[in-house]
Specification:
4 helices
Length: about 230
């Protein structure tokens, strides 16, 4: 019989190891995540680090998803330098706790290459994890048109309503096989929690790796509407 306390302690250690391996202000991020957990025990986690370049500046973002018995806790951290030399840096942090019962869907999309030669042992080349819940919605509005470039009539407005959700893409080529497996493991745990009401603790971690996954949504930036800064 598995000791549940030992299992959660092991997962807490794996979470700490993932944050250390990501190397993105690990002590600060760990403290923020721990505060966001509000004494809940982690059952599964996913750590995604993204680095992108904006002209001469380098920006990094980390998103940490932690599944507990009743919550999915989301922590997102950006850093930004305030001077040209990079001596003055600030970190912007947001956290959110989503009840597991509120999660509407967990979608996994897979990409395989050369499917005509598929073998059961073939790794997934790319995985996209999309999580949606019944939170706020974002409305993007703009002038409507009829498609005629010469038309000057007022066609009113048109827009789209987007659910506030998370979309993460993990590539074997860019992020490694273990990162893809970790994303699958987290998705399975979240899916079990979402469909059964009680998550099954993860007893295995697909390697003590650093899942440096690219987060792509709304132009390649990470994850949530209000997380994007």
């Amino acid at each position: 019989m598995t000791d549940s306390r030992s299992t959660t302690d092991d997962e807490a250690q794996r979470l700490d190891t993932s944050l250390q391996q990501a190397g993105f202000y690990p002590r600060m991020v760990a403290d923020v995540v721990q505060d966001a957990l509000d004494e809940r025990e982690p059952l599964s986690h996913l750590v995604h680090l993204e680095t992108h370049f904006d002209r001469t500046e380098v920006h990094r973002h980390i998103t940490v998803l932690v599944l507990t018995a009743d919550m999915m806790v989301i922590t997102h951290v950006d850093d930004q330098q305030l001077d040209d030399d990079g001596d003055q840096v600030v970190a912007q942090i947001s956290t959110e706790s989503v009840p597991v019962t509120q999660i509407r869907s967990v979608v996994l999309s897979y990409l395989y290459t050369q499917p005509q030669n598929y073998q059961p042992s073939d790794p997934v080349r790319e995985l996209t994890l999309a999580i949606a819940w019944s939170g706020g919605q974002r409305i993007d509005m703009g002038p409507a048109s009829c498609g005629d470039p010469e038309c000057e009539a007022d066609h009113g407005y048109t827009g789209t309503i987007a659910q506030e959700d998370i979309v993460m893409r993990v590539s074997e080529e860019a992020d490694g096989t273990n990162a893809v497996e970790n994303a699958k493991s987290f998705a399975r745990a979240l899916r079990r929690a979402n469909t059964s009401g009680s998550p099954v603790p993860r007893t295995e971690q697909a390697g003590m790796d650093q899942p440096r996954a690219r987060l792509t949504n709304l132009g390649g930036r990470a994850a949530r509407g209000h997380h994007q800064r």
